[in-house]
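Changelog entry: the RRM domain-containing protein record was regenerated in this release. Current contents:
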Amino acid sequence: MNPAKQKNWKLLTDPLIIKGAVKLFRYEGQVQGDPTYPVVHVRDPRSQIQRLWSRPEVLDLPVPRFRIDAEYIGDPPSVEVTICNVNDNIDKVFLGDLVKKHGPFEELTIFYHPKNNKHLGLARVVFENVKNAKSCVEKLNQTSVMGRPLQVFLDPFGNSPALVSFFSIG
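Regenerated C-alpha cells:
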C-alpha cells in the first residue's frame, strides 16, 4: 500500500512524546513494513444505537431582513414611498391604517419641523416588499384625503427634493 494515497491513518508512536522512538503510522488499519502489529478494522467510533434513535431536529431559523442604509451598494429595491401634501390633521395612526390596506410596512414616519414641531405635510413609508409599495403608489397617488390630494411616489433612499429640503432646514 502506498501511504501517500491512504485516507485513514493514525500516528501510533510520536518521537516528541516518547524520546528515541521512530514515527510509526497505521494506514487503513495496517502498519506498513511491520507484520507484528495486528490488523485493525477501521470503523466509525460513534454508537450505532444513538444514530438510529436520534432524529435530526428541524432547524427553524429566521431569515434576516436586510436594511437599506447609507452603506447599501447597488440599486435599492423600491420599497420606500414618499407621501407629500399630507393634511395637518393626519396623524401616524390614521396614515398607518390608510397604508396598511396595501400591505404590511416596516416603518412609517411623518415629518415635523425640528424647532417649532409644525406638521410639514411629508411622510415616508418603508414597505416589506416592492409589490406592496407599487400598489400603494398606484392607489393613493392623486387621491383626496381630508380635502387635499396626496402626491405619492416611489423614493429609494429618500432622495426626493421635498425630503432634501426638509433635512436642510436648520
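The longest helix spans residues 130-140.
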